[in-house]
Write a structure and sequence with these properties.
The protein has 218 residues and is mainly α. It contains ten helices and no strands. α3 (64-86) runs parallel beside α6 (127-150).
Length: 218
């Protein structure tokens, strides 16, 4: 009896968009941007990865520039929005507020660090992306400054603590310390104290441990 099952290589490549979605193209482009850089985000390359006809791209995007703009929009609506929103969450103390900010960087996955670095690399070659990055950095710093001000810090001090918070975390991720979560958590009390100037309570430190340790054993 003949085998009537089709292999993966025999999938039909129709002209319509039915085999892919706009989200498929964006996600594949994001993955490529992170792994290989913006120069590798090309229609033919993405079509090969999606195993579809290159023409299907044009059901969802006018051209490559349209796709690249969609990647920037995605980054701003995820990474920047996640960080800004985290600074506005209700918290009884500045240490609790800062723990919630660290949560989006470390624990819940709403901030994609590798995507942020890919955008920064892209910005070195594109003036428009550089401007978008500058605007996002400013929005993030303004949100952190507002957070510190809500807990009584004078504006100039709030701005400085916001910059220390932001630049320290960005630099920390860039250096890729590869330290264990246990080591990171052990330093948490001092991180909170040095950044806020307020000694963390046991409850605040435990909240931070829960964030950075996530599913690791205490």
């Amino acid at each position: 009896m003949a085998n009537t099952e089709k292999s993966d290589n025999s999938k039909p490549r129709g002209r319509g968009p039915s085999r892919t979605s706009r989200e498929d193209w964006i996600q594949t482009a994001l993955d490529t941007l992170i792994s290989d850089g913006v120069d590798s985000v090309k229609v033919l390359t993405l079509a090969e990865k999606l195993e579809c006809a290159r023409s299907s791209f044009y059901w969802f995007f006018k051209n490559r520039t349209d796709l690249l703009n969609a990647l920037l929009d995605h980054w701003q609506s995820t990474n920047t929005k996640a960080l800004v929103d985290s600074t506005k969450r209700p918290a009884d103390t500045i240490n609790h507020a800062l723990v919630q900010v660290y949560g989006i960087w470390v624990a819940d996955g709403s901030f994609d660090t590798q995507l942020d670095f890919a955008i920064r690399d892209w910005a070195r070659r594109s003036g428009s992306v550089r401007r978008a990055l500058d605007m996002s950095d400013t929005a993030r710093l303004d949100a952190l400054t507002d957070m510190f001000q809500r807990y009584g810090y004078p504006k100039s001090e709030a701005e400085t603590r916001a910059r220390i918070t932001y630049f320290t975390q960005i630099g920390y991720d860039a250096l890729d310390q590869r330290e264990t979560m246990e080591t990171r958590a052990a330093r948490g009390w001092d991180y909170l104290y040095c950044i806020t100037g307020v000694k963390p309570s046991d409850e605040e430190f435990e909240a931070l441990r829960n964030v950075v340790w996530k599913d690791e054993p205490a």
